[in-house]
Every structure is written in structure tokens, then in C-alpha cells.
Amino acid sequence: MKLHFSITTAEELRERRGGRYVLYSVCLEGFLLGKARYSQLRRWDAQLRQLFGSAVPAFPPKYYLAMTKSMADERQSQLEQYLQNVTLDSNITNSDVFIAFFRKLQQDTFKIQTQRAFLDVYLADGSNIKLDIQTSDTAEQILEVTLCKMGLSRELTKYFSLFFFQDHDDGVLSVVKKVAEFELPYVSLQSMKVLHCKLGIRKWYMDPSLDTLLMDCRASLNLLYMQAIQEVERNWVKPTEGQMQELELLQKNAHKVKFLELIREMQFYGYVRLDPCMCDYPEEGCTADVYVGNNEINCCIKLPTNQIKEVSFKINRLRSWQVTFLGATKGGEEDTLEFRFEYNDSGTWQWIILYTKQAFLLSSCLKKMISEHMTKAAREGQEMVVHSGFISRKRFLVRPSEDDRVFEKIGEEDL
Fold first, then answer.
1. How far apart are CA 229 and CA 238, in angstroms?
2. Which residue spans within 109-179 are E strands per DSSP?
3. Other beta carbons within 10 Å of 187
């Protein structure tokens, strides 16, 4: 599945011998992953091409004369598209060459050598598991070790993932991003210190009915139960007064299975809640509480007149989406992201915009929902709908590949 790679800056630097080169800031999910030169990326491409041949997308050509401003901008855009497209093939992203490149890139950029370290992985109840790791361990390795320590069956690991999150003093929980499998969590935490992030485990599926697949394993049952309680305590779930009383009684008596069976009936259970954001629907100047899950983007919108309007955007009526960097806020504290999606509202296609720093997380949730929808449709023999999504400067079209767990790219268009 295509990953959210972007190249946000291209810095021209001078070598000791007097020559000049460009250092590209490679970001993943909107956060700096590492800085690389064109020559580094070109050598990496050659290594991938030796292993995977024509499956590797075309690499931007080398210029032998000085580049003009337009040529430099074009190369930056082409490199960004290359990084996005090379991740479409899971054979490539799971390869040692792919993982080793980004391991070295992260460590070199943030000047963290491979050495022993301790890493806290937090659970939804606030407790943590302290791991003795190597700073070069990937998220996939750390997740596997953590879940093994908890006694989780190996075949159930795919239903969970590592996330960076912020646990605010006022009780608000903000999920910052899902950690990519090849990412180095220890290094990423050091690079995100200013955000005061923690590393935690959460389930990683958007269809609440998948809970039933995890109920027979004590470790996975405990993880689901802890997260469900957290969602109630942080007001992510919206139980009625009567349902809340039932949940409290079940929790008091530690009836975990019945607790989870009951909470699945409640609004927004299993959804990812985003921080409040601005939106332009149904008019400019609105704010929204956004919940993503169970095949919808649900927005509780506050109009400029202070009226509240709840709107559900179903993914089967969503045709495409785009994430765009808008630059720093007026205070210059953080970048503003625009999440724009094309939606069929009463037979008319229209663009709806959310201004949220969690735009990439929202995009990941959408891709996960579509993937689950396609998998379910394939098993039931239903016709599958081709969805499209915007990443950066091009629109990409996807369909399920022979392995229904991933997407296969079938085309792209310039914006």
C-alpha cells in the first residue's frame, strides 16, 4: 500500500572541496524521517533494481549540467513520486535493502548509533512495558517482542500496531501517527521530543466486528478491553446513560467479554477520534469533531451560528482524497495540513475540506477501511469499487491486487 512519503525541503549545501549538492528532507506521515542526497537515493534505486527489476518505478534522471530552478523543483517532485510509488510493492518494502536504507538514513540524520537502550511501550490503561532494545530495532521487531511478552499468539500480531500519541494533562488523548513497520521507534521518539510523544500499542483495524476474531486469546482480549475502557474514559465512545451504567457494572465485575460485546453496540466504538479541527462544510468557518471508523467519516460540526450538525460521510460515496501542506500557521508553531475529499452528496460530487494536523492519520484510516472493505467483498464475491486517492501532486488509482491485503496501482493523473 502506498505510503505517505513527501519531500518538504531541498537544501543546497556546499561540500568541503567547493562543490554543491542538494539535501532532501524525506518525511513520512508529515514527520521528518531523514535527509538524503540524490546520489544516495540513486545508489539505493540501483540496489532495488538488481533485486526487483521492472517492478521498481522509474527513477528521476541525472542531470550533467547545472539545474535551473524549474528543473530542481521537477526533480524534487519526481523523487517524492518515486518514494511513494516504490512502496506499492510489499515485496520491496519488506526487503532487507529497503529496510536497511531507511535504518541508516534515520540513524545518520539524527546521529544515533546502534547501541543498547531501554524503550517504554505504553498500553491503553497507562501501564508500560520496558524493553531492552537496540536503537536500530524496527517497529515490526519491537511490536513482535512486546506482544510476545504479553503472550499474544503470533498469528494475531497483524491486528495491532505501534502508534505515537500524546496524553495531555486535560485528559485528551491525541493519536499522532501510526508507526511504519520499517521505522525506528527509538530514533523517531528522539526526533519528536518537542511533541512529548509516547509509544503505544493499539488495535489496527477499523471494522469493530473483527473484535470477535481476538476474543479467544487472553492477551488480545486484555488489549481490547483496556482500549475499550480508555475510549469510554476519554469520551471517544458515546454510550447512553443506561448503557453507561451497564458498562460500569460489567467493569466492576471484570466481565471482559460481555463488556466488549455491549460496547460494540455503541456509537463510535472502535473509531479513531481526531483532535477538533476547522472545515468548510456545510460552509466556511465551521469546526468539527471527527471520528473515523466502520466505513465512515463522522463529523459533529459546529456552525458559525453555534448550531450543531452531525454528518456521516460513507466511504462508498467517497471517490478521491488529497493531503496538502499549507505551510506554517500565523504563529509559526506548526505546519497546517489540508485534507480534501471528493464526496457524492445527493448525486452531486463536491470537495469537502478538513484543516487538520492529523490529515495523514486520517488518510491511513481511510486506506485501512477500504482495504478491509475490499477483503470482505472479495470473500463474499461482491463487485469491488475502485477508489482513488490524492497524495501530494498526483492522483493515484488503486484496485485490490491478487494478494487482497494490498493495493495495486493502475494509473495516475497530474493534478
1. 12
2. 116-122, 128-134, 160-167, 173-178
3. 22
- DSSP-derived secondary structure for 234-258: TT-SB--HHHHHHHHHHHHTT-HHH
Contact indicator for 267, 237 with CB cutoff of 8 Å: yes
Entry pTM? 0.89
What gap in Å lies between CA 197 and CA 168, rounded to an integer? 10
| Assigned C-alpha cell, 223 | 488489549
Residue linked to cell 517497529: 139
How does strand 277-279 pair with strand 348-355?
antiparallel
Q: How many Cβ atoms from other residues are within 10 Å of residue 18's Cβ?
A: 6
User: What letter would DSSP give residue 260?
Assistant: H
Q: Where does residue 145 rank: exposed (0-12), middle (13-18), buried (19+ CB within 10 A)?
A: middle
Report the amino acid identity of residue 211. Answer: D
Determine the Cα–Cα distance for residues 74 and 393; give it in Å rounded to an integer. 11
Within the chain, what is the greatest distance between any pair of CA atoms? 74
Among 37, 45, 1, residue whose Cα is nearest residue 19: 37
How does pLDDT run across 333-359, given as a tens digit for each residue?
Answer: 456 799 999 999 889 999 999 999 999
390 close to 320: Cβ distance less than 8 angstroms: yes
What one-letter code names the amino acid at 414? D
Model confidence over 226-278: pLDDT tens digits? 999 999 999 999 999 999 999 999 999 999 999 999 999 999 999 999 999 99
